[in-house]
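FORM 7B: Structural annotation worksheet

SECTION A. Query
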Amino acid sequence: MKTLDLGDELFDPKAKCVAMEVTSSKQTLGRVRVLEVNAEAERWIPYEEIRAQIEKGELEVRRKGNPTLAVFFDRKDPTTCKRKVPRQSLPGSTEDSYLSSVARATRIVRALNEYCKRHKVSAYAAYAEVRKQFETECTDWQFPSLATVYRLLERDKCHAPLVMPNHLKGNRTERHSQELVELICALAEATFLKEGSQWTLNALTDKSRRTAIANGLLGATAPLSKKFVRKIIETRLHAMPEVARYLSKDRAAKASVASHRIRIEGILQRVEQDAVHLPFVVKTPDGPCSDVWLVHAIDCATSNVVGWHLKVGAPNESDGLRCIESIMFSKRTSFAYFGIEDSHDLYGVPALLVLDNGAEARGERYRRLAQLAVDIEYCKARNPQKKPFIERLNRSLKEALQLLPGCTRMDGKDGKRDPVALGDDLMDLKELERWVVHWYFDKWADTVLDRFVDEEVFENRDLGVTPRQRYENIVERLGYPLPLPPNRDDWIRIKYHAVSRKLNLSTGITHLNYQFKGDNLQRLIERFGTKRVDVLYDPEDFRRVYVVDGGELVELTNQSAGECTPAYSFEYANENKAAIKEQNLESARSAAFTEDVYKRSMQKGTTAGCPKKAPGRTAKKEVVDKARQREAIERAAGHPLPPSKPKTTASSDLVPIRLDDVDELLPRDRKTGALL
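SECTION B. Predicted structure
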């Protein structure tokens, strides 16, 4: 294809459509005539302008009957040779044969044209002489017949390829009728391509063959191959039939296209967090448990782990916030506890936090992170490809720790092994966390990552190929400033729930059936009186609350909790109280008393002889005096004095005195005792 011919189409690859068609290939003043698709009239365009657009890739020449060039595979590539069918498995045999045929045909056509032009004879007259010349020079191949030579000359005159490529050879008509193809498409859409379909390709092929025989589209013994049915589905209905059979909730993840690589330049500019179920059985004081979850986060710029939280049981919002807290604040205490030495402590407020829709990443408190300038990005359900860094970390962690005792992972799948039945020496939660943390900072931090290697090869920024090298070069060598951590009071305002409660002199702050007091209550009473105040509380710790006093948080403690009381959540504490009350129901004696009260209250007495008005003050005093007199008589009757013994004269030395025999008594002063 060396020049433009009549009928050539100029195709626009960006718009994916034909832009213009050549209506006259004869050049006039360096121009050719074309008809644009969207124009009503033809116009002349400079030939050099068309050449320049073709050279830039803005236009492509497409000629009718002129196929695209054949594709030649690299036969030295083992994967390509393995995928090819045995007929094409010989190293370069098909390609060499085709290229040799093209070279021979080109030499023959050129030799005939030159002979005809030099001797001014026809192709028929030049055929014999050119044939003798080639038979003398090329003895290893046979010269084509006269009819073949005429066809080659005709193709050369039309600027068509002299030899058709192998991929265009074959039957010119379809193997089966169009009605059979439409039948296969209809059955496939109704059965095989349905979401979650139980139909297999073998069943669809058999159903199509039986239906075609019944409708007269195939003979009784005519075959219908599974390969042909699959080809019809892939070319007419869906290029990936397996994707159409996925459940809609799984389709986005299993058929996602990784078209672009996520590139992050700054540390803590993108942090991905996820909760992963660890395939381990750990021993607890209450027995073995396999419900072990790890919430961890990774910095996408350096691939360093920046936060984690391990627990037994499904994680909730508070567990996710504990992981975020380890991202924002120093982990030196954890490093000292687990014996991590000479490790980089990467912490600060992340710019972007990528989460999924798990229970540990949802809640009102996550929305408050926007106050710290943290942008939250949620991935759709079952879309792990949206956070690839943490997903790769999950897999690497499981593969690295699967040799430890208590792991349920086997043959690359979780839950296929029973460590309890096999007698493994189970670890407790702290020991498992110790292995996880040491893997983070002793193994993963020094792992060579392919994406870092690619950046070093193509960008040559000399930032290192491991997470630890990246941190040291960016922070220590280049002096990149890390983001600041938030203020502690600001983090408490984010982490805790806020409610409005009224101060009380005797009960302090009452919240969720608990009273919060303490040494600071007097100060708050003097400051606010008995007005309503803003109260912050952690739903996972029922032992304390905080009262907002301007920019300060004043702590009050739960009067029901002591120094040794565990930090139960409000929900757990209330559930325990409710369970204890349910276990101690009302006794039969207490119920009988209550019923007696109700029964006596409902009895109706007589009102005869009862005054219609309340008694006055004097009447009340008389009643009280009579009641006291009656109570004294009753007490005396209940506890009488012992009877006195009779006295006799024989036993007494005293002489009885009569009043008439007694002298008159002299009067005396009461104060001084002197006689008057």
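SECTION C. Observations
The first helix runs from residue 47 to 56. The two ends are 166 Å apart (CA to CA).

SECTION D. Sign-off
Analyst initials: ____
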